[in-house]
Queue: 2 jobs
Job 1
Amino acid sequence: MQDITIATCQMKARNAVDRSHHLLELDFDVMAAASRGLISRIRLLSLITPPPIPSPYFSLFKTFSTCLSTTIEECEAAAQPRIIQSQPGVMTPKSRRTGLIAVKCGMTALWDKWGARVPITILWIDDNIVSQVKTPEKEGIVALQIGCGHKKEKHLTKPEVGHFRAQGVPMKRKLREFPITEDALLPVGFSINVRHFVPGQYVDVTGITRGKGFQGGMKRHGMKGNSASHGASLSHRGLGSTGQGGDPGKVLKGKKMPGRMGGKQRTVKNVWVYKIDPARNLMWVKGQVPGAEGNFVFIKDSVYKKPATSLLPFPTYFAQEDEDEAELEPLVADLGDVDPFMAAD
């Protein structure tokens, strides 16, 4: 019985070995056929010349080579600095002139030729020059930087000194940038005097208001206050209720309460220019302007009450060669030929 079992196992083993040898021979035949087919395909492909495929880089290079001359010319033109000349121009309704920096000298009162009292603020245009020109090619905007006054180099920071030296202008005490249109550009170092404005026109004046410190609600917001009697105890100048007892039970944002008053930038619009004095670079305007005496204010043409384009010098006033500013008389606004007091009667 054991001999039969051993013979059966040996027979099965031989059959398994024969099958494995047969499978290996089949695999070798398949691999050989595949290799022969691959080699034949490679030979066939090597004999066929494929059509040229256009490359995107080739088209890009071709486009660049055709436009190279034009691009170089445009780059050379853009690299050259713009030449700005100081010459009179023609003002259009869309033109925008530069503004000036002035020093507030104080307030007074004048009486015009009809006897009417005019409250006056005196402004001093202290040696305004163009300290920098900003163009779309370099800075992306069109503006003029105006410098006012004089200041010693030792009182300026090193970046400020470097800026003035790079522009080739004297040291200035105050700088201000005014956006303009391209037809109103002026060269660096050009001096602008008070005749940039004309008597009778309207201007907008910007300045920093007087700082008054921490003030209560009555002074800061003009509140009425509480009663002087009838049980009012230590609450005469109080605000009263600042919130609610129930819903929402809080002080709402923006509630007018005591706080710091003044010291903010404000603009007074439509200020009337009464008189200018070219000999002293002084300008008289009607009414008040923000700021204390000695503060800088910034003057520009009015936005709402625009003067006639033929009235203003554009881009600024250019003095004549034989003109002596020291001998010029003050220029007063035209008040008309009709007495306002008689017209009222």
Job 2
Amino acid sequence: MEFHKRTNMKLLEESFTLPPDMSALGGNGRGTGYPLYITAKRYHVQEVQVFERDSDAITVLAFHSTSFHKETWEPTLEALFEALITNGLGKVKIREVWAVDCPNHGHAGILNREVLKRKEFATDFSCERYAMAIHRFLLGAPKCFGVDFSKRRLVGLGHSLGANALLLLQGLQPVFPFISFIIVEPMVSPGDGHDLDKLRARLVESAKRRAFEWPDRETAFLSLKEDRRTKRWDESVLRTFAKHAMAESPSGAVTLACTPQQEQAMYLDVPGATRPVEELTRLCSLLPVHLVIGLKNDFMYGAPLSSPFKMLIYVPISPRVVHERLLDPASGRIYASVKEVPDIGHLIPQEIPKKLGGLVHELLALIMERQAKL
């Protein structure tokens, strides 16, 4: 179900930055500390302030895909809160939503640009590093921001890389109190990790050759809007991309916050496609996991398709095969629900954010209904 704006609702946001831990770093900036900034935003609307002290209300944690940024969720969240208000506040109680940047993406990527040039990050920024950054943010939030996530009822929402990071987060100690997960198009390989070798090589090549710089944000927006590879994105998503996925250079031009080198490092993360499957299998036996997949063959596994930036990708295995492996009952993975979305492929939050917001509202209603019965 897709929701169109019918109220005067305004999405409210607050920005948070967790600084590096320099206490254990040596004079050269290296050591046992944590050298990266972690950036996040908290989203809510005035109408949900009634849930601030409601012990049943949930906090949603949202994580983005490779080459995007935390604000890519904003159009989806607007539709989600719109659905919540339209359908009545009692059915779904959302206290707030938090979105966290992968440290080499978005605003975090800008703050960390110099540190990311180090050898240990330049060629090795894995899905696990995103999960570790999220974990560090959650641990540091009580002291730095006065928010104790260990006392919240958490629901995880992740797309692609963000879904993988959400799954890996569950294996880090201490474990935070998630009650359910909404996994959107996870970038995983349920079979042999080498299933994705050819895709990985092509994605790396595309990252090397894609557009990186524009004269200004408006030119970047117009370029993406007209490009046949990105014109399917919702216009609101394109706007957030031009605003938050780019950094201003000294010359006045804008460049991608996630550099081509960092994007390549993400694609070269072989365990990042297989280890999340292990966590997914384990979690399916413990908590409700809701899976959302697109039925159209495109970016992730289909052949052929242009990537969002300049290159054609030809992939040897269809998304249907991967989806069938994810859904194979013999794997031991039993999902709370599986939502198959027709006429859409991998980039669900980018292409149909309003419809996704309505779908997330439906899934949160199921999650809260189940919790009420426990």
